[in-house]
Amino acid sequence: MLVHWGISTMTTSSMYLKVINRTFRNILGQKSKQNFGKYHIVKPGKVTAQMTVPDHIPKPSYYLSGEPTDLVPCEEIKNDVQISKMRDSCRLAAHILNEVEGFIQVGKTTDDIDKLVFRCCIENNAYPSPLNYKQFPKSVCTSVNNVACHGIPDDRPLQDGDIVNVDVTVFYNGYHGDCSRTFMVGNVDAEGSNLVQATEICLHEGVSACKPGEFFRTIGAVIEENAHKLGYRVIPAFLGHGIGHYFHGPPDIFHFRNNYPGRMEAGMTFTVEPVLTQGKETIDILDDNWTAVTVDNSRTAQFEHTVLITDNGVEILTKCDS
After folding, report:
1. Is 225 annotated as a binding residue?
2. 284 HSE (CA, 13 A, CB side)
3. Is 76 annotated as a binding residue?
4. 273 labeled binding residue
5. In tens digits, what is the pLDDT along the chain, a chain of 322 residues?
């Protein structure tokens, strides 16, 4: 996601984040004293230098400037060739995310994760989509505990009990594939484990609502209903998005009740990527202009898939098969 970038979910997302931040800054007052469990509140660490992509790797339009030039004006209906390329890019993204799962452990840093993702991309002749997208400095987003989204990998070692979302997007054969999961590091308390499980359930239910002819807004209604039933809130700032040869495009996929217009059609590809929180839905953006943290330091979790609307329903393109 760099939701948009989402970025699951960065184009319009940065705007949404800043608007919400301004709106609620004077309302929030003192941070919540509610007990959200036992975990470390994360502060940003040291960020290492941006890595250089080899010349032979095909690169997206924003590689140098940071600004995409391949925007699309409306929802795209993909043909069989485009769908095949989407399957390939999404399969690679899911494979890399599986590699991350086997790599994560106490003591590893999120910068270590970034290096792994970068290496996996290059070895597979792919470009790590987040790198320099809107000037994002790394190859992957890593969001730990109270970091809700768009965390920048740094030198902080993962601690026993952390939960960390890793958001992998690759640009492969001209198309982006986008997925994320929240991993539990070591011994996570019941509150954290329940949050992670609930978020994965909400993603599953949201994806299951997808089919040709269904309203886009149904996804958000289903996700929010399930989140509330499970005792959590959806952070509204982060959206899913259309995806293809472009990183982010129409439609916008809201993960809460909304009135977004339009219906799904066979051939559409987009992400579904809810972020759930234990506490307040509101977030703040740190001085790096990317890292979104909860205002009450509550933990969040996120899961994301890229999906394809088919003639009969929905296909998860980033299903993480072992």
Report:
1. no
2. 15
3. no
4. yes
5. 555 434 343 434 443 444 344 333 333 333 334 689 999 999 999 999 999 999 999 999 999 999 999 999 999 999 999 999 999 999 999 999 999 999 999 999 999 999 999 999 999 999 999 999 999 999 999 999 999 999 999 999 999 999 999 999 999 999 999 999 999 999 999 999 999 999 999 999 999 999 999 999 999 999 999 999 999 999 999 999 999 999 999 999 999 999 999 999 999 999 999 999 999 999 999 999 999 999 999 999 999 999 999 999 999 999 976 5
Q: Is 167 annotated as a binding residue?
A: yes
What is the pTM for the complete model shown?
0.90
> Residue 178 annotated as binding?
yes
To the question of whether residue 304 is assigned a binding role by annotation, the answer is yes
Q: Where are the domains of the chain?
A: 13-22+70-316
Nearest alpha-carbon partner for 73 in 211, 218, 216, 246: 246
Q: In what order do the strands lie in the sheet with 233-234?
A: 233-234, 275-277, 300-302
CATH class of domain segment(s) 13-22+70-316: alpha beta
Q: Are 136 and 2 in contact (CB under 8 A)?
A: yes
191 annotated as belonging to a binding site for a ligand: no
